[in-house]
User: What shape does this take?
Amino acid sequence: MEASPIVTSRQREEVVHGVPTEVVCTAFSNSVLVVVTQYGKMGTIVYVDPNTVADNVGRPSLTTKVLLGKDEPLVHVCAKNLVAFVSQEAGNKPVVLAMALKDKTMEGIQALREVIRSCQVW
Assistant: This one.
């Protein structure tokens, strides 16, 4: 009998708006790790935490904290837009996001979100 893996992980490589992109999603018991890179390295690491107090439409609001890398407003915006759905679909688990992006346009973020969705492990 084959044992099940301790963590479940999926990886995908795709060209997003002309930029080669790698995505790896790994589910842990207490969180989800998402790596999105267009540089071949992890880049900035952001912790995306759903607050237990729901906002006025019934969804938890997300708090972002840069763990490693440049702490800029655009980093927080990109992180929330990339992985808010991951946290919600994973039962409001925190998400650790490692991102190194060339294309930070809204269209690019939306396309990256679909690649992340295709690597669903949560």
